[in-house]
Structures are given as structure tokens and as C-alpha cells.
Specification:
This protein has 423 residues and is α/β, with parallel strands linked by helices. It has helices spanning 3-16, 32-43, 65-78, 98-107, 126-140, 144-152, 160-174, 178-188, 195-200, 212-225, 247-263, 281-285, 290-299, 322-341, 347-361, 371-388, 396-422, and strands spanning 53-58, 81-88, 109-110, 230-237, 272-278, 312-314. It has 3 domains: 30-112 and 228-314, Rossmann fold (3-Layer(aba) Sandwich); 136-200, no CATH class; 322-422, no CATH class. β4 (230-237), α11 and β5 form a beta-alpha-beta unit. α14 (322-341) crosses α15 and α16 packs across α17. 40% of the residues are buried.
């Protein structure tokens, strides 16, 4: 990894303990078995036959769910899948409102790319995918007439309005009509457009709660039709609780989730794979009534190398003891740190720091702060100390104090975040 990029990764990890969107392979531990099965059984397997699948990712808050989703994203890119990563939250993207979910899906839609560097904001979204689509078709076409014939012959989607809109966006770009492109993309992103624009591009529907699921299916069908192997959805319930604020909203959200699970396997979702990450599956499934029981039945089986058809992927069960996990993670972080700052930490002192912090972190109690996150932030600060003074002493008391201060800082950060969300 380039030194500047390694420093950016270390900076992000050292500040919050949460993974950046890029460079995660450099410090990925314990996920190889899960990722291998996802790739071999699904990305290179059944999805290639126009099938689809759903997986539920569970793990404690700060326990690696987002890291796992980013790892899946990178696998999907390498296998020619488009990806959309959506962070669910109660205000901007609750799962009970599929029309808002659709808007976030198309806003974060990303075509396959190298994830060694951050994705610029202008290189995300359905407009970016349409631009890339046109660029790639231009390379294969001998003249404009060929492109027009190609777009005319494009397979339809479940929503005629959707396919008309993406065809219109393609044609507007081809004609170098920037205003027309922006206006039709506005509709594709779930925003209101004038009657004149809808008439011009033969759009008869609005993106609302009645049409949102059909638009999601049409998006999948279009992505598949233009040459990608499929579309991978990464839904991340990133908050401590769920993105649903009331019991009524929760039932609606769970019914939406049930519909997605039930749709998986049929031809209307060619090459689609859904990952839904939650901090606690009980938040999702605790309750009585038909929708809860229906979901429990569908989500009960455990995913593994032995049972790749299983649905639940539990990131607390990686087959590695916590201390061993942190020790391996610490070694990866140390290597990344040395690259970032062009330094070689003393091997014996480095190993001692990692061992002390690993032993203490797994037994530390921190409200809402996982031991993994606590270890990452603490270890990077300890590496900075070693870099500043290679002869610095670091014993058990020093490690305890470092983790205590780190815990206080992270808890304050979380409290500030909660208060800003509530008020």
C-alpha cells in the first residue's frame, strides 16, 4: 500500500476504530472462510444463473459488520458486480419506507472499480453508472447509429418508466444534452420532475411507497441487462438500535424485509444478492405475530462452509479465540503503521504492546464499545508512542491506563453522536 494511503487508513482507525471504505484487506482477520464461500457459492456460482440470495449479518455494535460488508463489496467488484452500500438510520433511511431506501440505493450505486483508494463522491450514483455505461459502449461501437440501435434493443424492465428513463439518460448523454441528462437522472433518483420532462421521456410513474419495490427490481434487471453480473445490496443498520422508531414502523419494515427474502430465488432479481447487517438479531426478530414468525422461519439457518445455503452469518463466531484474533489484528496494524510512517518498530516492544493490549481489551467493560474497536484505537496510540520514543516503557499499568482513557474518549464520542441525532 502507498504510504499516503496507509497513513489515511491509520488516521481513520486511530480516531474512531471504525474501518475506512478503502484499504481494508491490509487488516482483515478471520473473514476468509465466510468470504470464500460467498465468492465461490454465490458471486461465481448461483448468481451467474440469474438467481438471487439474502444473508443476515449479525454481530455486536463495533464488532466488524461494516468491515465485512466492505470486504464483500470488494469481492463483488472483482467479480463484475455493481454494489450499493446503504447505511440505514431512523431519519434519512428507515427500512419501513422503501421509497427512501430506493433513493439511497441509487445514490450510492457504484460500478466495479479498484477499491485501493477512496471513491470520489462524483463517481457514485446512478448517473455515474450511466456515464460509464455509455463510455464502454462507445468503445465497442463504430458509429452513433450503432449506439442508438443498441439502446432501442435493450431488454425492458418490470417498470416501463424506469427503462425509458435510463434509455433517456443514455440518449441525452450521447447527444451531449447536459440539462436533459440531469433532469431524467433527477427522476431516477426518486426526486420530483415536471410533467413536461415525464412526457418527454415517456415516464408515467412516480417513485413512491407504492412503486419503490418495483423500481428496485427494475434497477436490478437493468444492471444485469447492460453487462454486469448483477447487483449486490449492502444494508447496514449502523446505529445501536434499529432504523425503525415505532412498533408499527417495525412491522412495516419487517414485512418489506420478508418480501425481499421471498423474492430471492426467482427470475425477477437476476444476479442480486442482499446483505442486511444488524447489531442484534433479537432487535429484528423479537415480537409476536405473523410477520415475526414468518421472518424467524426464513432466517433461522446458519451460514457456513458446510451449509452455504444458510442465511445467518454470525461475526462473533469466527473460529478464532478473541485474544488470538486481536494478536493477529495487532500484527497487521503494526505493519500498516510502519508503512504509513516509514518506521520500523522494535520487534520485542511491539509484540509486548500487542500482547498486553489484547489480553486486557477482551476483559475490559465498555458500554457500547466493542473490545475489537477498543483494541484498535489503543494499539495505534501505543504504536505512536513507540515511534516517538523507541525506548519508552510500556507495562500492564500503562496498558490499563491507555485502554481506560481510550474507553472514556470513545464513550464520550458515542454520547455526543447520540445527542446530536436526538436533538
Amino acid at each position: 500500500m502507498e504510504r499516503a494511503l496507509a497513513r489515511a487508513v491509520i488516521s481513520k482507525l486511530g480516531a474512531t476504530g471504525t474501518p475506512p471504505e478503502f484499504g481494508i484487506e491490509a487488516f482483515t482477520i478471520g473473514l476468509d472462510d465466510y468470504l470464500r464461500v460467498v465468492e465461490e457459492e454465490y458471486l461465481k456460482g448461483i448468481l451467474q444463473y440469474n438467481l438471487s440470495s439474502f444473508k443476515l449479518i449479525t454481530g455486536n455494535y463495533g464488532g466488524g459488520k461494516t468491515h465485512f460488508l466492505y470486504s464483500v463489496r470488494n469481492l463483488a467488484f472483482r467479480n463484475n458486480y455493481c454494489v450499493t452500500y446503504v447505511s440505514l438510520n431512523p431519519t434519512e433511511c428507515p427500512f419501513d419506507k422503501l421509497e427512501l431506501v430506493y433513493k439511497n440505493v441509487v445514490t450510492n450505486l457504484t460500478a466495479p472499480r479498484d477499491m485501493d483508494k477512496p471513491v470520489p463522491v462524483w463517481d457514485k450514483g446512478i448517473e455515474s453508472v450511466v456515464r460509464k455505461w455509455l463510455s464502454e459502449r462507445k468503445e465497442k461501437a463504430d458509429r452513433a447509429e450503432t449506439l442508438h440501435r443498441y439502446i432501442d434493443d435493450l431488454p425492458t424492465t418490470e417498470s416501463t418508466s424506469f427503462i425509458n428513463a435510463v434509455k433517456g439518460a443514455f440518449a441525452a448523454l450521447l447527444a451531449e444534452d447536459g440539462d436533459g441528462f440531469s433532469q431524467v437522472v433527477q427522476w431516477l433518483k426518486g426526486e420530483d420532475v415536471s410533467k413536461e420532462i415525464r412526457a418527454q421521456y415517456r415516464i408515467s410513474e412516480r417513485v413512491d411507497k407504492a412503486t419503490a419495490f418495483r423500481m428496485l427490481r427494475s434497477l436490478i434487471q437493468w444492471v444485469h441487462a447492460i453487462g454486469y453480473n448483477g447487483l449486490v445490496f449492502l444494508f447496514d443498520e449502523a446505529e445501536r438500535g434499529m432504523s425503525i422508531s415505532s412498533s408499527r414502523d417495525k412491522r412495516r419494515a419487517l414485512d418489506n424485509l420478508r418480501q425481499i427474502v421471498d423474492e430471492c430465488g426467482n427470475s425477477r432479481l437476476p444476479g442480486a444478492m442482499f446483505f442486511y447487517a444488524v447489531p442484534d438479531e433479537n432487535l429484528l426478530l423479537e415480537g409476536s405475530g405473523g410477520v415475526y414468525e414468518a421472518l424467524k422461519q426464513r432466517l433461522r439457518s446458519a451460514f457456513s462452509g458446510i451449509n452455504p445455503a444458510g442465511v445467518r452469518i454470525n461475526l462473533e463466531e469466527l473460529g478464532i479465540k478473541p485474544v488470538d484474533f486481536l494478536t493477529q489484528l495487532g500484527a497487521r496494524l503494526a505493519g500498516l503503521f510502519e508503512t504509513a510512517y516509514d518506521v520500523k518498530l522494535a520487534q520485542e516492544r511491539k509484540e509486548k504492546v500487542i500482547r498486553l493490549l489484547a489480553d486486557l481489551a477482551v476483559t475490559a467493560f465498555a458500554f457500547d464499545i466493542s473490545y475489537r474497536r477498543l483494541f484498535v484505537v489503543g494499539a495505534i496510540e501505543a504504536f505512536h508512542r513507540l515511534r516517538a520514543d523507541p525506548a519508552v516503557g510500556f507495562d500492564k499499568k500503562d496498558a490499563e491506563k491507555l485502554l481506560r482513557v481510550t474507553t472514556q474518549r470513545l464513550e464520550q464520542t458515542e454520547q455526543d453522536k447520540v445527542e446530536s441525532e436526538e436533538f
